[in-house]
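Now for today's protein:

——
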Amino acid sequence: MGGVVRVLGVDPGLTRCGLGIVDGGRGREADCVAVGVARSSAEDELASRLLAVGDEVERWMDAHRPEVVAIERVFSQHNVRTVMGTAQISGVIALAAARRELPVVFHTPSEVKAAISGSGRADKNQVTTMITKILGLSSAPKPADAADALALAVCHLWRAPMMDRLAQAEARAAELARNHRARLKQAQQATQARTGGKKK
């Protein structure tokens, strides 16, 4: 696809799981391919709900063939039950991605907000407004979970090059440190050999 990367953004939720497919890779350009929501009924058993959302996400993965999956990192807030459901859905999606050998990357809500709006404290409406502008959509994606999923995908597209550069810099620094330690060790051994040779 000539340098274009396709990302599946997921705003995990048990009742509504936002899904957004975005193509990008040419600077800050990004195109919306698909957006929607996987739903499950609060009346159903947990296992059935996980299966319903998981099946829909797998359909999206097979239909749109993303190269990477970006999921919102869950934070423990006030409602523990909501967080548990969200974490379980994240696990189901990560498993589906692993089965297809797709890399999974987690982004925090503040990382997404900062990438999309320039402020880690932006509210949902600001994120929705910005993602609608960035992707050139004729109307705002609804519900908010769908807009959040698109924002996650774009956040990953824009952050990934920076994350790669950081990883490369860390790898180079680690290699320099290893080489430095090796040279120190060689110098110490050489010193010991010289001083050891002089001792009677």
Summary: The chain has a mean pLDDT of 88. The radius of gyration is 23 Å. The chain is about 55% helix and 20% strand. Strands lie at 5-11, 16-24, 30-39, 68-72, 104-107.
